Amino acid sequence: MVKKKIIGLIVLVVSGVMFGAAMLTGYGVGKPGGDDTLLGAKKPPVTLNADASAFSQAFTEVAEKVTPSIVNITVVAESENDPHQNFFFFPYKDFQIPKEQLGSGSGIIISEDGYILTNNHVVENAKSVSVLLSDKRKYDAKIIGKDKLTDLAVIKIPATSLPAAYLGDSQKLKVGQWVMAIGNPLSLTSTVTAGIISALNRGQLNLIKDTYGVENFIQTDAAINPGNSGGALVDLSGAVIGINTAIASGTGNYVGYGFAIPMNLAKSVAIDLIKHGKVSRGYIGVQIREVDGTLAKSLGLDRPRGVIVEKIVEGGAASKADVKRGDVILKVDDVEISQPNQLQSYVAGKSANAEVTLRLFRDGQEIDREVLLKPREETASETAAVDTEQDDVKDDSKSSVTFEKMGLTIKNLTDKEKEAFKVSDGVLITKVTTYGKAQQQGLSEGLVITRADKKKIDSVSQLEKIILSKKGQAVLMEVTDAKGNSRFAGVEVPE
After folding, report:
1. Sign (positive/negative) of CA torsion 269, 274, 277, 280?
2. Is 276 a catalytic residue?
3. CA distance 266 to 459
4. In this structure, what DSSP letter does residue 108 have?
5. Of the residues 69, 106, 121, 459, which is catalytic?
6. Which one from 69, 170, 198, 229 is the annotated catalytic residue?
7. How many CB atoms lie within 10 A of CB 54?
8. pLDDT of res. 106
9. With contact defined as beta carbons under 8 Å apart, do 384 and 373 qualify?
10. Is-catalytic flag, 368?
């Protein structure tokens, strides 16, 4: 009986072990490494064709090849001295405000012997700068030069045989082109994001607080965050085509758009900083504005293009090259211009004493002028060019005129008003109808119209005659404000 019980117990144990082994094998534990053929579908739902596979491979290859050229920059900077800071620590007057602060950014290795390109705002107030390479080597860096007007800087580390990035041609970029942003955002080293170029020649962001600041950014939806500054924007060939600089955000973090400095500009600035420690930048010596549809019509242009010259700097390069107020700059060195920052960015890449060719539109014709760029220090105060052209007809029988369809009322200037505006002729705008043609073209009460159709205006009757002759067209006007600032405006004249 005991023997039977022992035999039964042995059978039960063996059966249990065999069942357990079968169960474990069914869950992939019984075999070394497991058997994953029982999990999930038998094959992926989509088989990539050769083109899709190559497209995906391009991203991985660029990330692999370019990431070693991107560095992490750590900066110890002096805190800005704010005289109002003590207010926030009252009554704890003995509280010690930190004298230093720690910051970080990114940089791009641009030479095998240690030159690194980054943003000026990354290293601007630095007391010390250190660089961490992708292979974890760390170096102290020296600031070679900074350029506030483009927000660029060059630093150098004592190293050799470094993986320098390939610097591409930003002039060939197209909207919609795939790009990748590589940098160190939010203290996360070697981060890669992807997107497209969503706009080119983006300006008027007011990122550079200087009237001579150069803003001509590449806009991208590749994610850029704090810490990306100074990092690379690259195309799918691995060429660096921009320096990631800023984001458009109300929170300080990525919400859709980032901005990069074009490589062609960055390259020219870097060369100057390495050679001279500063940028010897050339200037044309003009104040310009975009040509809109109405202004183009009033000038006789076939379509809105170019930028109009509103002021000439006395003694500047343009004044010595037969460039005049009212000229429209269509091209510079065969590069078409449609916005002021395009011209500004192109010229910012040229040194003083370099020569550029301007294609101008003047009096219905296109002409070329060679301009020898001059340094900023040689420019003087801005003044309007003198034009002695006069209108033959003068009629003082009216003191004011209202153009109902344009939404504009003008009156003759008194001697006192001429003295206040510092003009010798013109008519004063006394009323502009809300949402009327005149207001839509930038005219407002308190402006003086000094010229119309390139003729000096000294009475309302004279301006009335010109406007009546331009029905169904547009008239070019020159206006001056109470501060003496003058500009051009194209105003449509209804039938």
Report:
1. negative
2. no
3. 51
4. E
5. 121
6. 229
7. 11
8. 95
9. no
10. no
